[in-house]
Amino acid sequence: MEYNFRSIEKKWQESWINNKVYRVDTDPALPKYYVLDMFPYPSGAGLHVGHPLGYIASDIFSRHKRLKGFNVLHPMGYDSFGLPAEQYAIEHGIPPAVSTAKNISTFRSQLDKIGFSYDWSREVQTSDPSYYKWTQWIFLQLFNSWYNRKADKTDSIASLEKIFAAEGNRSHECPGDRNLVFTAEQWNGYSFKEQQEILMQYRVAYCGYGEVNWCEALGTVLANDEVINGVSERGGFPVVRKKLRQWYLRITEYADRLVSGLDTVDFSDSMKEMQTNWIGKSYGAEIDFKLASADLKEDIYLKVYTTRPDTIFGVDFMVVAPEHELVEKMTTQVQRNAVDEYLAYVNSRSERERMAEKKITGVFTGAYAVNPFDGREIPVWISEYVLAGYGTGAIMGVPCGDERDHKFAQYFSIPITNIIGEHYNGEEANPTKDAILENSGFINGMVMRDAIETVISKLEEMGIGQRRVNYKMRDAAFSRQRYWGEPFPIVWKDGVAVPLPESELPVELPHLDDLRPGPEGEGPLANLPDWKNYDGGIREVNTMPGYAGSSWYFLRYMDPSNQDVFCSRAASDYWNQVDLYIGGTEHAVGHLLYSRMWTKALYDLGHIGFDEPYKRLVNQGKIGGDSRLVYRVRGTNKFVSAGLKDQYETDELHADVNMVNGFELDTDAFRKWKPDFEDAEFVLENGKYICGSRLEKMSKRYFNVVNPDDIVEKYGADTFRMYEMFLGPVEQDKPWDTKGIEGVHRFLKKVWRLFVDEEKGKILIKDEEPTAAEWKALYRMVKKVDDDTERFSFNTAVSAFMIGINELSDLKCNKRKVLEKLAVSLAAFAPHMAEELWSMLGKEGSVLNASWPKVEEQYLVETSKMYPVAINGKTRTELSIALDATQQQVEDLVLGDEVVKKWLDGKTPKKVIYVKNKMINLVI
RNA sequence: GCCCGGGUGGUGGAACUGGUAGACACGCAGGACUUAAAAUCCUGUUCGCCGAAAAAGCGAGUGCGGGUUCGAUUCCCGCCCCGGGCACCA
Predict the structure, then answer these.
(1) Which domains does chain A have, with CATH numbers?
(2) Per-residue flag: A243 CB under 7 A of strand B
(3) CA A64 to CA A54: how far, in whole Å?
(4) pLDDT reported for residue A72
(5) Which residue has the closest alpha carbon to B1 C1'?
């Protein structure tokens, strides 16, 4: 009776479904635990072995928590709206709804084979109208809200209207336009349309204008990664920046809370740092510089934002963003052509290219800004490294204090003023705040750090500047000119965005056969007049972005089929925050910030009782592909082994990893692989064809994809699960190599043999009392597996299992009492086998309803330890010493040792360092 | 360019809070069982030196160069290389 994983796994997977063992319900009697995997996008390529890594970890954790008495919510669903399905539809004529459904079913069957404990009765799909009805509903909540800075919370637009009618907007600065000021009288005199336009500037979900990547030839807007070197990925057509009407979420209003909220959650420091940097809060000043230009007739001021007003006497040039509104006005006749030429160049470049550009580019406008303190005229330049969206879109260049400014000044031969004396060496900028200021007028002799305040006060006094907090983060663009996304529940009437009533939700995405873009950069929905024209107005034809549905899905899982609300308060009060959230770092600043913001808004509006969605976040690494390379002699069909390739002029090709054993190519399989290789010849080394290798992304294109289905078929799901964990820390990126899986499979067979004699087909379980050594081996294992699982160190947990099983095998332990606890401890990692062993032990029901074994510490107590004894830090010998030994006892013992005596060579040690339970070190 | 992460034997990795570097596996080498194979088991396996071999011993060693410390994979400074993110991929 050998370990027949195929029949065991099939049997228990069926049993789990039939007995609905993974169904969970709210149960106030039990402590809850919510484990969530990041929402997958069901891609057409299916799962490769890298995908389930996080799912296996979270599944083990969920099962572990269940064994420890928690009511565990562990759901799964699909973020099924998205660009790839739409792209696929355009290329293959298959509607997104159809390809998505097919992908989901493939995905599901792959997941099912791995034995996950998901409660599938709670599955959600973002593209399902019963789900996106509530995405639209939340959008309307955000549309009907503004951010009350005074109260620091999201509030209803109705409350804002009341305030305007009573006192205008004097206590509530307009976030969309700081210069907008009106009284109650003015407000009450405005037309409906005028009022709506003002309200739009306050709404949390608002409509504005923003730049997109516009490709005229394709007639469509492109995502950043569809643009390569200024041309479209598809077709290579030119792409330019274009302003289009867009929806936005006013996430900037939540910036402070998004930063401070990080103190209340358990994310890695690096994750918190990334989010904090992304939000990019800075303190500084806005300063108005009067412009002087030969061609200027009127007084114009250039507003710059700086975090270092103390360096104002070191300003040698100004730089404005190419999109800056004053560019047109301040450019002089002489510089006109040069400026136009430069603007055309910049317009062809994406923002990312601009930020990543090392080459210095720029053009002089011909205008000068006047330093308000010493009257110096400072040239104003345009350069792509200044972005319109950040600060005021204009900076003051201080070459001696900022490296990028320094390079700019050097490149364009702008003379550099030194305000920090010897702290500036003329070679590179020094961003210090601790230097004493020189050449700095009224702040001469001050420490820079202190001068910041002095200058701001002075500016405010003079009325040409003010203190300003600034954020690098910008409001989130919330519309896409695409088809496969949530429609907006908005109808435009006479230029006013009118929200549809809740009773009309969901606004269903109409069926569309032709997904060509609409006119003027609009999405495909613009091509559907019957749908578009509605109730005397025109529907919003943009759709929502991918992150809409994923910003709140964790709430829907709590109450997935509720028809009346997005999630009942009873459900969200019970399940509350996600206790453990697992996913990749690539979502660090997108998804995580958006869903944190939505949660805060829903909390402020009273719909849920907590304002951070994820209590603990663990980032899983990626599993890379280990590609195999073959080398073809150029112009021939002859392939040379890797070790000999330098003797020839060769081209490198990818060979399918499935026809390579380790590094040795199966040459027959290779010949059969493609007709081109049918008569391939091989130059071998030591009779073998050895492939080269390279770690890269697991992708069809590199023929390095390993499908979990194949692994499960060959070794079983339990082996696959444990091997994925054994590969290394979950958080770390690592390559996949199927070879090592044998070790884990052997381990499981070894477990099996503790229960069963494979040859005689007899069950070995005995009712004898276990020995102390057996208990010790078991409990040491149980304890370490528990600790390691709790701290997410699954690879070391697996090795603890191996060590424990090796010991129990050596002890030939078949004692029932030990094996029962062993079966339970294995239930999270190898659930199928654990169930089989559990029933073999004569137990009723699922092993998941058992309890995690309690460790009896008395079996683990040690009385002595083998201490390493080092002399001057080098370990020279080992001594067994009682754990309760005193310093004196240790010194006597150590100094009496032969090896130690030899090294001491008659000398007395200066010092004997004895760290209890660690080591001993003699200093001589 | 900016932000974040990583670099340890032939390979994946371990060393949790500054305390025996290489646990546990893979691979490899040798052996046992077997007519043979599979399966299983045993021994060895960081590198170099010494040595017929074994044992013992010596030296070096955690990307590179410095530093702090009785002691550094771990902390600090400076570099090199690789991966992720940078706002319309999800």
Answers:
(1) 30-138+547-619 (3.40.50.620), 147-202 (no CATH), 281-471 (3.90.740.10), 623-709 (no CATH), 737-857 (1.10.730.10), 864-923 (3.10.20.590)
(2) no
(3) 15
(4) 96
(5) A356
Question: What is the per-residue pLDDT for A506?
Answer: 94
Residue A520 to residue A759: CA distance in whole angstroms = 76
Using CA atoms, how far residue A466 sits from A394, A453, A654, A818, in Å, is 15, 11, 61, 73
Of residues 732 to 771 in chain A, which lie within 7 A of strand B by their beta carbon?
732-735, 737, 739-740, 742-744, 746-747, 749-750
Q: A426-436 burial, b if ≥16 CB within 10 A, otherwise e?
A: eeebbeeeebb
Q: Which of residues A879 and A815 earns the better pLDDT score?
A: A815
Protein chain A, residues 189-208, with a C-beta closer than 7 Å to any atom of nucleic acid strand B: none
> What interhelical angle do A831-840 and A717-726 show, nearest 10?
130
Q: How far, in Å, is the CA of A660 from the C1' of nucleotide B46?
A: 28
Its ipTM equals: 0.93
Window 360-399 of chain A: CB closer than 7 A to strand B: none
Residue A268 CB-density burial (10 A; 0-12 exposed, 13-18 middle, 19+ buried)? middle
Cα angle vertex A692, ends A688, A698, to 5°?
A: 125
Gyration radius (Cα) of chain A, Å: 34
Nucleotide nearest to A211 (CA to C1'): B88
Burial code (b: 16+ CB inside 10 Å, e: under 16) for A38-56 equals bbbbbeeebbbbbbbbbbb
Cβ of A125 near strand B (under 7 Å)? The reply is no
Residue A349 CB closer than 7 angstroms to strand B?
no
Mean pLDDT calculated for residue range A192-211: 93
